[in-house]
Amino acid sequence: MRPLFFLFSSLALSGLTISAPTQNFWYETITHNGISPFISGGNSWTVFRNVKDYGAKGDGVTDDSAAIQAAINAGGKGSGGNGFGTTGAPAVVYFPSGTYAMKSSIQSYVDTVIMGNPINRPTLKALSSFSDSTIIYGKDPGFDATINFYQGIKNLIIDSTAVSNNTAITLLDWSVSQATQLTNVLFNMPDYSLHTGVSTPEGGSGTYMGDLAFVGGKYGINLNNQQYSFKNISFTGCNTGVYITHAFSLVMQGMNFVNCGTGVDGTNGGTGNVGSIVLLDSSASSVGTVINTKSESGADDSIVIENLSSSNSGPTVKAGGSSILSGSVTNRWVYGNTYSAINSPKHSAGVTYTYARPSALLSGKNYFTMPPPTYQDQTNVVNIKSVSGLTVHGDGVTDDTANINTILANNAGKAVVFFPAGTYLVSNTIHVPVGTRIIGEVWSAISATGNNFKSASAPRPMVQVGNPGDVGIAQISDMLFTVADVLPGCILVEVNMAGSSPGAVGFWNSHFRVGGAAGSKAETSCTDPTNPCKAAFMLIHLTATSSAYIEDMWGWTADHDLDANNGMHISTGRGILVQATKATWLVGTAFEHNTLYQYSFSKAQNVFVGMQQSETPYWQGIGSSQLAPAPWTANTTYDDPSFSNCAATDANCRMAWFLNIDGGSNMEVYGSSFWTFFNYDGNCVGSGGSCQSNAVHIVGTPTSTRFWNLNTKSQINMVIDGGAVGATQSANSGSWGGVIAGYLPHA
Ligand SMILES: *[C@@H]1O[C@H](CO)[C@@H](O)[C@H](O)[C@H]1NC(C)=O
Ligand SMILES: *[C@@H]1O[C@H](CO)[C@@H](O)[C@H](O)[C@H]1NC(C)=O
Ligand SMILES: *[C@@H]1O[C@H](CO)[C@@H](O)[C@H](O)[C@H]1NC(C)=O
Ligand SMILES: CC(=O)N[C@H]1CO[C@H](CO)[C@@H](O)[C@@H]1O
Predict the structure, then answer these.
(1) Which atom number of ligand 2 is nearest to the Cα of residue 213?
(2) Most buried residue among 33, 197, 320, 496 by CB atoms closer than 10 A?
(3) Number of continuous H segments (helices) and E segments (strands) in the chain
(4) How many CB atoms sit inside 10 A of residue 359's CB?
(5) Per-residue confidence at 4, pLDDT binned at 50, 70, 90?
(6) What letter would DSSP give residue 82?
């Protein structure tokens, strides 16, 4: 056989330049017929914007900043929704492979995804003459950070190596919140520079970022945010990997620190500024200090470390300037308040636990994780709006149920099914068969309508992933599940299928929204605070036979209107119900404003939770005419909590559980972030400053079930356990209210 070496050298000698054949990325070449159904002229709205069509050269020399901004702004898109609301102007600003030189910054807005070709990620390169302090402003300046939703950045390299190392430049300002995705990005900075990779100076209520790499710089990530899940991030040669300006609850999974001065710096600010840190399945090599923290006062600054491999590094944990832990952690190391029995907090400045992890959740010794699928190796992708003979509209008006079902059935095991941006109205269940791969675009919506979903006593799924007992593949990315009407009998998603391997059944960057946006009667007809309308039965149900990996999911019942100014008083019955037993991974999830609970794990087994963030409905609590379970009736078929622990008129008690656990086993819950801000009367004055009586409910004696860094705000009891008080916020003060490093009575 002719050696490859010979082939290359002869080509070089003949003066030809060769480049590796680049496979086309399906998304770059597929028909782009996404629309924005609910704005005027929206059927011809341009969703896909290839920056080269707007004049970008990608030649590494020409300043492409203005062309990139033109692609973002096309169609009149601009700050604060610019008349289109938050959801009206979906845009994908797409970069083919190449190097895009920039002299000035670009500004992104809500409902925008900036993405490159993942096969050969394009580089956005700041020139040495770069004139601004930030390369990409990801936060829409027209909205507060905490309502900067629906934004994405993926498959890029952002490069500041040409900028002077003495310039304090930031590569990405990402002061954003839920339903955002930052993934598969390399932040390339000079060594020994003052550069910062990602910063969140204006705060935010973030949920998830992952599959990122930071090289060089002063800070990889400078975090100022309520809470976050970080997954699979490497920091190489950063002076500090993660600098915490402020955060209450941070779960870091799969961090890899190499040649950094400090891995995680949590020394900033006083009590309550850095609430809690979890570090799982990570490594540190040639790092000065892995975690630097304050000396702990009360329960604040809680730290949980599991399976950290440290080599050639200084202290593993330094607190108040002294080393309190060195070397690798092969078990679980905990700094903070722990409970081995109910109502008996103990403070520990470092204790090791040896509980084994549930093996069903592991890949090797680590918890299983996987990056969001791009399907970059696939050439067989079907655009659901371009199948001849089976017209699908995605126009928010036409019922697409039958043809979506036919196309999914025809393509199972054969092709990836692409849903262009739009709203796909369905009047009956969409069946997702074994072998399905679905990918959307700027959160393509599947939206329920009609009488099939109206009965609370006969609820029906809108999207049903497999039948009970099915095993195989069903992957769903970049989609939104919503309701077009007030539908008390709608379960938005039901998962019955188990993955044939971990991640074979999964959801990435897929979210729920009930009300709060154009295209739903729940936006315009659920405005009476004394009568919140039952707009959906449940957001997502992982049934007993299912096994799914879920990463980056926000289950939101709207508390405000994203596209207009209607008051939102909506009662979705339930958030996420997990009855699955085989294995369930919830990486970076948030469920908010659902009525009976945000999360319920009933007879569930083998559940991993890596950061969960929640809030109760703002119309609940003292002053409300609706005391949970009202306006719903508890139904034992769904193992609904009955609130029988509360007196009939106790409005502060009859509020949604953040986390309801009924029996089950092998659950590992990291980084719970349970916040209450209001009750019906406003600022919780009637209850002496506490907005809610209880956060977590445990019944049915679960086994091998552990809670790590459980955080609450403005609640009295952090845990009600077997009918008794398990833990109070006042005994664990710190973080935004209370934090428990290890709640282990069921361990
Ligand atoms: C920039 O790099 C030079 C050369 O490595 C170094 O002397 C200088 O201290 C660096 N500046 C900063 C701010 O680190
Ligand atoms: C981690 O993220 C990188 C992208 O930065 C990706 O290439 C790699 O496959 C991911 N690793 C795992 C274990 O998911
Ligand atoms: C409880 O749910 C089951 C199953 O969906 C349903 O058949 C029954 O009618 C519901 N009960 C009530 C009281 O709504
Ligand atoms: C807590 C934990 O994850 N422990 C694991 C760390 O890794 C070793 C193997 O190196 C496993 O045996 C432990 O179970």
Answers:
(1) 5
(2) 197
(3) 5, 53
(4) 9
(5) very low
(6) T
Whole-angstrom distance, CA of residue 278 vs CA of residue 331: 13
Q: For the whole model, what pTM was predicted? A: 0.96
What integer pLDDT is reported at residue 682 of this predicted model?
A: 81
CA distance 490 to 540: 10
Atom 9 (ligand 1) nearest CA:
192
Predicted confidence at residue 688, as pLDDT, reads 64
Fold of 436-743: Pectate Lyase C-like (2.160.20)
Q: Are strands 112-116 and 91-95 parallel, antiparallel or unpaired?
A: parallel
Amino acid 296: pLDDT: 84
Please give the pLDDT value at position 297. 78
20 pLDDT more than 90:
no
Please state, in angstroms and as integers, the Cα–Cα distance from residue 225 to each residue in 75, 331, 598, following that order: 32, 29, 21
- pLDDT band (50, 70, 90) for residue 82: very high
| Res 681: pLDDT | 84
Q: What spacing in Å lies between the alpha carbon of 192 and ligand 1's midpoint?
A: 6
Q: What is the reported pLDDT for 10?
A: 34
Kindly state the average pLDDT of the residues 56-81.
98
> Domains of the chain: which residue ranges?
4-344, 436-743
For residue 146, how many C-alpha atoms fall within 13 Å in the half-sphere facing its CB? 5
**Sequence-distant (≥ 6) Cβ neighbours of residue 136 within 8 angstroms:** 105, 106, 108, 114, 124, 153, 158, 171, 172, 173
Instruction: Please give the pLDDT value at position 318.
Output: 97
Distance between CA atoms of 537 and 491, rounded to whole angstroms? 5
Residue of 253, 309, 331 with the most ligand 4 atoms within 8 Å of its CB, for mutation: 331
Tell me the per-residue pLDDT of 675-692, one tens digit each, with 9 for 90 and over.
Answer: 999 889 887 766 666 899
Is the Cβ atom of 365 under 6 angstroms away from ligand 4? yes
380 within ligand 1 shell (Cβ under 6 A):
no
d(CA 562, CA 695): 28
Average pLDDT, integer, range 356-367: 98
Domains 4-344 and 436-743 share a fold: yes
What's the burial of 527, exposed, middle or buried (CB within 10 Å: 0-12/13-18/19+)? middle
- Work out the average pLDDT over 497-516: 98
Show the beta-strand stretches assigned E in 74-179: 91-95, 99-102, 106-107, 112-116, 123-126, 134-137, 151-159, 170-173
CATH superfamily, region 4-344: Single-stranded right-handed beta-helix, Pectin lyase-like (2.160.20.10)
Ligand nearest to the CA of 163: 1
Burial 136-168 (b: 16+ CB within 10 A, else e): bbbbbeebebbbbbbbbbbbbbbbbbebebeee
- The Å distance, Cα 491 to ligand 4 centre, comes to 38
Identify the burial level of 565 via C-beta atoms within 10 angstroms of its C-beta, where 0-12 means exposed, 13-18 middle and 19 or more buried: exposed
Smallest CA-to-CA distance from 238 within 220, 211, 256 is with 220
Phi, psi of 212, rounded to the nearest 5 degrees: -125, 160
| pLDDT score at 532 | 97
Q: Whose CA is nearest to atom 14 of ligand 2?
A: 370
- Under a CB-based contact definition with an 8 Å cutoff, are residues 436 and 415 in contact? no
